[in-house]
């Protein structure tokens, strides 16, 4: 291989210089380096160093290597694609099966099963899907069973509803406790009976029955016993009347009996015959567990069309007649008369006048002293309510107090009495008249939730010490409201207020409540005091009450003392205190002060004058 000639430019190179050039030799490309070689001190070069380098082999090797690498990469890509296709097929196929199964389940087919061919996540998913479809199939079967059962129950309930509707209609027309017609059904029947009476020109009698003191049965024996008694009453009434008569219960212990088809000439006789059978049926005592109570009833009778033009008015007039029977002493019957309505109107008018009297200040207090029987000195005063009507004058308490209790006005009146009496006694205390104040407590006041707070406020606002206040409560109130009485009276005692049982011996006279209740005194009723020196029974009862009060450590006060003989008897047997007309009648505020001043000297020497009141004239 011939080398190319050395270019002339090389000769111009200095010592140590070098030149390069690209040359093509025999079709191959070379990189050539030329450097002249000089002899010592010789200018022209004596020779040349020529070095040629070729990159063809390296290039060919590199190309071979690149081609090999590309080939390997291509093979790897092909293998990867093939492996991906294989893996994709293995992965996608089960998913497609699951998707097809899911679409089948969505269309309502629940018998689909997808075989699990692996234990990986996909296999777990397949097992879960199969379990889900199985549970859905079971649920569908249960729903089917439920639906069938529901249809059966709906059918059954529909029949039961029809029966219940009929029963509910009956209950709506009948009293639940006794099974008798109630007010609604009574009104319907009575209208039909009256219409028939008009067509037949006959009369109809309406009997209104209310049982005397029935509330005591509930209070003493309990409401369960009262319900049993009402059921027995219904049975006896049904047996006592005629087959054509209607017995209905209005509520509580009120019953109505309708007697249809009465001839005008002998209707009263038939009514009397029914009343006689009714009263006879209650002569036999009732049996309630270990109790054998006897009942009486008050009956009012009204006749259609003589006493009333329609059903509602007929029942109303019979009710009015029944109240007239109660006023006559109970265990009686009364036929309706026109003047009975006048009495009802009078009562309503009195209630209206009482409300006006409260607004106009027509009520006022009087005070009756309670003296020490051994010394004759006043120990206390009882505050008593009075009413002076502008037109009728002074109204007896026996007329307006029951109306106040029935109407609920007694609560406002009682609070007014307490507050005014407390203020007055405090004023007397400031005048050196140290007296205990006694105020009557009614059942309505005892039932007031805030009565204790009212007492506290009355004492605080007046400045009266609780130890100077004595509340009088009748034993009937204590018995009929024992639980409430214990709670309320215990709170009052804790305040320092004393409690006295009024009219002792006229009610239940139960010794058990004397031990339970926080009482400090007993008052002998004036009915017993009035019989002293006249009736041995009254004397024996009075002595027993005094002895019992001493045994229990209670103060004994006698009310209604009007004669010297009564005074001496009570003092001789140890009764501590007394009040009555022998000492003085109830006095107004200024009259009481005058009475005190008139006897001030006697009071000052009372320890030496135990017979101070014996010579007084009632």
Describe it for me?
There is one protein chain. The protein has about 625 residues and is of the alpha/beta class. It has 3 domains: about 10-55, no CATH class; about 185-335, 2-Layer Sandwich (Alpha-Beta Plaits); about 345-590, Alpha-Beta Barrel (TIM Barrel). It has 20 helices and 17 strands. It has helices at about 55-105, 120-175, 185-200, 215-220, 225-240, 265-280, 310-325, 340-360, 395-405, 410-430, 445, 450-460, 475-480, 480-495, 510-515, 525-530, 535-550, 565-570, 590-600, 600-605; strands spanning about 20-25, 30-40, 45-55, 205-210, 245-250, 255-260, 295-305, 335, 365-370, 380-390, 395, 435-440, 470-475, 500-505, 520-525, 555-560, 575-580. The strands form 3 sheets. It has an 8-stranded mixed beta barrel with strand order 9-10-12-13-14-15-16-17, surrounded by 5 helices. Strands 5-6-4-7-8 form a 5-stranded mixed beta sheet, sandwiched between helices. Helix 8 crosses helix 9 (about 395-405). The protein is elongated, with a radius of gyration of 58 Å. The termini are far apart.
